[in-house]
Amino acid sequence: MEFVEVLTQRRSVRSYKPQPVEESKLKRIFEAANMAPSAGNLQAYQVQVVRDQAKRKALAKAAHDQGFIAEAPVCLVFCADPNRSAAKYDKRGSELYSVQDATIAGAFAMLAAVDLGLATVWVGDFDEKKVQQVLEVKSIRPVAMFSLGYAAELPAPSPRRAIEEIFQGDFPQTD
């Protein structure tokens, strides 16, 4: 797929087929996330791959009963590793750069999934402590998760703000 097509085809999908995601596709998604830029190239994040049904149900509950998390065959939880970033960048690294690193990796993974014919939805509304308990982690911070699988629906594109509302300053003039 051409890159712009990947961007225009991405949707927030909340209904999934029970079909498992092929190992080769998961590997390509992981490789794409690994290519994401990060502060100081520290890659101050970890990604928890959750395929276990019981854990996906627990994650769905921790995400205020967003059941599609349990429905999809895979859930990826992107976690900031504050200590990894703080070693070089102190407080700004632990509080900001590690979160940015995790979210950029998540965006790369999400776009790779679309390119491979898979569907996702970004989930940021969850109880962070409960997610840590489900994943049995303490020193990393869950910042985003998404369900991953084959779409059982194709939602219409979401409306977008006009680019003139978003981009300020020296805006390009049309020819």
Short account of what is shown:
The chain is of the alpha+beta class and 175 residues long.
Secondary-structure map with pairings?
Blueprint: H1 3-9, H2 23-34, E1 45-50, H3 53-62, H4 68-71, E2 74-80, H5 82-115, E3 119-123, H6 128-135, E4 141-149, H7 163-166
Antiparallel strand pairs: 1-2, 2-4, 3-4
Q: SSE string, helix = H, strand = E?
A: HHEHHEHEHEH
Shape label: globular
Mean pLDDT across every amino acid position: 96
Most strands sheet: 4 strands, antiparallel
CATH topology: NADH Oxidase
Helical fraction: 40-55%
Strand content: 15-25%
In total, the number of domains comes to 1
CA-based gyration radius:
17 Å
Q: Which secondary-structure class do the elements indicate?
A: alpha+beta
Output the strand order for the largest sheet.
Answer: 1-2-4-3
Identify low-pLDDT runs: none
Q: For the record, give the distance between the C-alpha atoms at the N and C termini, rounded to a whole number.
A: 28 Å
CATH class category label: Alpha Beta
Tell me what you see in this structure.
The chain is of the alpha+beta class. The protein has a single domain, classed as NADH Oxidase (3-Layer(aba) Sandwich). The longest helix has 34 residues, at 82-115. Helices cover 45% and strands 15% of the residues. α1 crosses α5 (82-115) and α2 packs across α5 (82-115).
Give a quick set of tags describing it.
175 residues, alpha+beta, 15% strand, globular
